[in-house]
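Hi all, posting the design record for the shared folder.

TITLE: backbone redesign
STEP: 1 of 1
STRUCTURE INPUT:
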């Protein structure tokens, strides 16, 4: 199981609580005093903390990931999900499924769409 960093777009209390009840070590942008920081700063913070970043901000984080990989950079891994496609429970179940199949080291420097894990 990997540690998670939840950015501002995805910090619903119910979602965070479900993840924690599943055994995830979760840190939110609010808890980390990272509110209003730009997306690259959020990803840098998550990487420094060795936490996989979860967000609904698909467009921006996809672009950041591509730029990071082109310049030979690295990051702790990014999980993305559309904001209203899944309930907090569904999202947490999909993240749990991912965590059972992929280690932190396999997610590192990768961008994964949570919706690809839905049946």
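Okay, here is what came back for every position:
SEQUENCE:
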């Amino acid at each position: 199981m990997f540690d998670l960093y939840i950015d501002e777009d995805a910090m619903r209390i119910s979602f965070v609580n479900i993840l924690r009840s599943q055994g995830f070590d979760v840190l939110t942008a609010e808890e980390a005093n990272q509110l209003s920081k730009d997306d690259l700063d959020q990803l840098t913070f998550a990487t420094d903390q060795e936490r996989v970043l979860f967000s609904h901000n698909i467009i921006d984080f996809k672009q950041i990931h591509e730029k990071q990989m082109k310049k030979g950079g690295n990051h702790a891994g990014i999980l993305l999900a559309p904001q209203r496609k899944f309930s907090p429970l569904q999202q947490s179940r999909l993240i749990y499924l991912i965590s059972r199949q992929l280690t932190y080291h396999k997610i590192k420097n990768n961008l994964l769409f949570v919706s690809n894990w839905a049946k």
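COMMENT: Residues 88-101 form the longest helix (14 residues).
Let me know if anyone wants the other runs.
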